[in-house]
Amino acid sequence: MSKLSIFSELWRFMRVRKKWWLLPMMIIIVLFGLLMVFAQTSPLAPFIYTLI
Questions:
Q1: What is the pLDDT of residues 1-51, one digit of tens each?
Q2: Which residues contact 10 (CB under 8 A, 6 or more apart)?
Q3: Which of 40, 29, 39 is nearest to 7 (CA)?
Q4: Residue 35 burial (CB count, 10 A)
Q5: Are residues 41 and 50 in contact, defined by beta-carbon separation less than 8 angstroms?
Q6: CB-neighbour burial class of residue 14 (10 A; exposed 0-12, middle 13-18, buried 19+)
Q7: Most buried residue, 1, 7, 14, 50, by CB count within 10 Å?
């Protein structure tokens, strides 16, 4: 099972079941995860940690 199929399955679930309120939460979780990864691997990490 590829990672893309997980996202497509989630999209189909939200579309069929009309669970659009899940979309903003998913976006925030993904953005927060990207921020954490970026904060660990970047030379800007000390500046990002002050934001968190």
A1: 566 788 888 888 888 998 889 889 989 988 888 888 777 776 766 776 666
A2: 26
A3: 29
A4: 13
A5: no
A6: middle
A7: 14
